[in-house]
Write a structure and sequence with these properties.
Two copies of one chain form a homodimer.
Chain A lengths: L10 H12 L4 E4 L4 E4 L8 E8 L16 E7 L5 H11 L5 E6 L2 H13 L4 E6 L19 H14 L4 H13 L1 E7 L19 E4 L10 E4 L3 H18 L6 E9 L5 H17 L2 E9 L9 E8 L2 H8 L2 E2 L4 E2 L2
Parallel strand pairs in A: 3-4, 3-5, 5-6, 10-11
Antiparallel strand pairs in A: 1-2, 2-4, 7-8, 7-12, 8-9, 10-12, 13-14
Chain lengths: ~325, ~325
């Protein structure tokens, strides 16, 4: 294993310190317990807080800022944050209108956010994301995994919260987006957890893992490596099948997110996007919004995921609204 | 070699088509000859055009847009674009005030941009970037290589051009920034050129290549892998030494760019940034602006580069000005 690190024990602290320094105009980090907040705390709105294991950067700390999260609680690599982190973050950013947790559906995250919620002295609610259509139940999951679609939930719910919407409305929007979003990932290589020092799984030069999780969890099956168009066709088919299973409309405008898992060149991500957009159009969906890049990673995995979110006026408006975070930034 | 591709021959076309579709609000692509322009062409300003081999994404096409480039000419992977591309791009974006080429100093790029310049029916000038302080002369280079500092030149010269500044002023600013900018890269793994199908160089699990080029060219020396702080200390020392060799002030405000070469997790880049910022502060430089991420890549290389640009009021103002491109986007 070759990584840029000093002591595995201090990797998260050193990296978060660098992150907070590089983006000191936007965010602040606190340690013991560890959480990231906006530099300019918001007033009189629902506080939106997310978190989870590190190793998925820029998720979640990269999405703290105006129009998106109020705080993020990073755990160690692929390890849930602990309830004291969520409690301290909530204490720091609560602005009189309650707290909404956005939590990817993994057993450790669910348990720790639930424990935090029980102790929380504020009105609160939780949105669980479960957009990964690859498998039902997985290594760390009862039910479907939350993956790259989480970014769409965080962006749009963050936008709604800025308008002064109440806790119930924020939760409703988050659950609607999760329901209208499907993702599937594919790995060409494993990731390597720094503390483990070796690849999470073995895979040969002629194989791919279809439906891989963002922690290197097994997907649907080990397949033979083949040309990109054939891989993308299977991924798009899985998403379209999932839309059908969810009884979503068989046509409409979508947001298409092609997400790199850490070690995949942008040139390849755009090639994947090109095929995915064409196939989705052929199936009746119109790609109205796009995002291509590394947004929810699996450390250093070579691989990519495709996410489609079926838009409506509401979701589109909140996706388009201004956002000003380290990792997503645009104006109207 | 496992990559997301269909036919190597069509990889660039498919990827650029995806890029142009994903960012159809900002850019347009033309083929035969191949170039990328802004969707909304600028009026009455110097046209800023860059280009070079592909494989360094988001450079250069990702920087086409308001406040930065007017056009980019992508060659095949690690291969210079041809003069007909630059001529067609210039024809498409020339707005009556002349054309400035921004060219990374590699023999093929220099030759092809020079040939295009000779044939250009417009007033023109060229800025060559050569920020890489690792080596003098290299595999594809007479003189120093142009690497990640090119992004700073493109951003700031693009900003100046938007103000209506003339060709000579744009060239002067570009050359000033290049003079005040030093970079050095390090590789933990090789890149793999798709058409070659195998790693460009061999490197073991206990080695790193200090001073590597963005095409996998040899650096200063093969070294033993060690902790991040020791690697970063050597990189920072090389930059500070280069500042001295260029007779730049030994203190002042800098822009610090920590750039991933393709396969390095953001978590590690922020860790590198943390150490580099601390060491540069200790040496008398104040980190006033920061950029951390994959901005000038070497396909799928695990590695990173550090770039420092000594700011002045002029450079800082043009760095801060609004930019609206696929890969860099901010408002004042």
């Amino acid at each position: 294993m070759k990584k840029f690190l000093n002591d595995v024990e201090h990797m998260l602290t050193e990296s978060l310190t660098g992150f907070a320094t590089a983006h000191s105009d936007l965010v602040e980090v606190q340690f013991d317990p560890t959480f990231v907040t906006r530099k300019q705390k918001a007033q009189n709105k629902v506080a939106i807080i997310s978190g989870g294991g590190s190793g998925h950067e820029p998720l979640h700390a990269g999405y703290v800022g105006a129009g998106m999260l109020d705080a993020a609680c990073p755990g160690q690599v692929f390890t849930s944050p602990t309830p004291d982190q969520m409690l301290a973050a909530a204490e720091a950013v609560h602005a009189g209108q309650g707290v909404l947790f956005i939590v990817k559906n993994y057993a450790g995250d669910v348990m720790n956010f639930e424990m935090a919620a029980e102790m929380l002295p504020f009105e609160h609610a939780t949105v669980y994301t479960s957009d990964d259509c690859a498998v039902i139940n997985s290594t760390y999951t009862t039910g479907r995994r939350g993956v790259a679609g989480t970014v769409i939930v965080e962006k749009c719910v963050g936008s709604l919260a800025e308008t002064g919407a109440d806790l119930a409305a924020c939760k409703t929007l988050g659950e609607k987006i999760n329901q209208r979003t499907s993702s599937i990932g594919v790995a060409l290589t494993s990731c390597t957890v720094p503390a483990a020092g070796r690849p999470t799984f073995e895979i040969t030069d002629t194989e791919l893992e279809m439906g891989v999780g963002i922690h290197g969890e097994p997907g649907r099956r080990r397949e033979t490596m083949r040309e990109a168009d054939a891989i993308v066709a299977d991924m798009v088919a899985a998403i379209v099948h999932d839309f059908k299973a969810k009884q979503l409309p068989a046509q409409g405008e979508i947001l298409l997110l092609v997400n790199g898992l850490g070690a995949t060149p942008l040139m390849e991500l755009y090639l994947i996007y090109n095929t995915a957009a064409r196939l989705l159009q052929e199936k009746g969906f119109s790609v109205a919004r796009s995002l291509v890049g590394n947004y929810v990673t699996a450390i250093d995995m070579a691989g990519a995921s495709i996410t489609a979110c079926l838009l409506d006026n509401d979701i589109r408006r909140h996706w388009d609204s201004p956002v000003h975070t380290p990792a997503l930034r645009w104006d109207m």
